[in-house]
Amino acid sequence: MPSVPVTYSNEIRPRMFFRNLTLFRFSAPVAADLERLEEALPEHRLRPVGPLEMSTRGFISPLGRNEEALTHNVSHNTMVTVGGEDKLLPAAVVNDELSRRVQKIAEEEGRKISGRERKRMKDDVMNELLPRAFVRSSRMSAYADKKHGWLVLDTSSRKSAENALTQIREALGSFPAVPLAPEESPRVLMTDWVSSGDLPAGLALGDECELRDPATAAGAIARCRRQDLDTDEIREHLRNGKQVFQLGLIFDDRITFTLGEDLILRKIRFTDVVLDEQGDSHESQAAEMDANFALMALEFDRLLGKLEEWFKLPRPE
C-alpha cells in the first residue's frame, strides 16, 4: 500500500514564522534566570476552561498539539507558546434571555424588577448559558533571545503582549522585561528617512505609510498603500507638518515589514531570498520546527540589532 504524505491542519501545526513583533528587553542577569523556564512551565500548563469560567490561560507546546515539551530551544533562543480558551457568549444572547425573563415576571406577577434583582437574574442567565457556550482556542508564540536580551512576541497588540508577559512572570515568579525606550524618536527618524530619502545602509522604503498631523489628536491623516513613497506628493504632506507614524520598509531585500512609531513591527514577510533557504523536506515536524525557528531567529537577530542601532535602544543593565 503506498505511503500517504503527512499533513498538518492549521489548528495542530504551529505557524512557522512570526507575522508581527512586539518587543521587550531584559538584562543579562535576567537572561540567566530564563534557564528555569523548562522546569517552571509545567505547573502553568493550559487547562481546559471550566463549565462556569469565561477563559483560561496557560502554556502549550510550541511544537503543536499532543507534544509535551513546553519550551523549544535553538542556540541562545528559547520559544514558548501561551495558549488560551475563551467562551463565546455574546452579550446580545445574554440580554435577550434576560429581557425574556423580566417580561415574563412583569406579565405573570405584575411588578417591576429592581436593579439588584435584575443583576441577580443576569448572573443566573450567565451561569446557565456558560456550560453550553462554544470555546475558542488561541495561541501566541514568543521567544527569548538570551544573548542579546530581547523578548519577541508574535503579536501587534500591546495588551496581548502584556498578558503573555504576565504568564511568564507568574511562572518564573519574576521577569523584569521592560518596553523599548528609544533614545531616538521613531516618528522623527522615520519622517527624516522619507523626506530626505537618506536611509541607513540595507534599508529601503516599501510601498505604504501613514502620515499624521501631530499637533492635534484629531489632525489630518493620510494613508498610502501600494504607492511609491519617494514622490513630491508625499514630501508635500511632510512640508505641511505631517509626520510618519507607520512606514513600510524592506531590510536587505530579505524582510518586508511595516514599522510603527510604537516600534511594533507589523505585516512581516520574508522574501523569496529567505524562503529559498528553507529546504524542501524534513524528517519530522520537530526537525522542520528546528530549521525554521533557526532561520527566523537568525534573520530577526540581524534586524533587531539594526533597530537597536538606529533608534538607540539600550539593554537594561
Automatic annotation (TrEMBL):
InterPro entries the record matches: RdgC (IPR007476)
Origin: domain of life: Bacteria
MF term (GO), any: double-stranded DNA binding
Cellular localisation: Cytoplasm, Nucleoid
One Gene Ontology CC term in the entry: bacterial nucleoid
Keywords, in A-Z order: Cytoplasm, DNA recombination
UniProt similarity note: Belongs to the RdgC family.
HAMAP family (UniProt xref): RdgC
Protein name: Recombination-associated protein RdgC
Name of the gene: rdgC
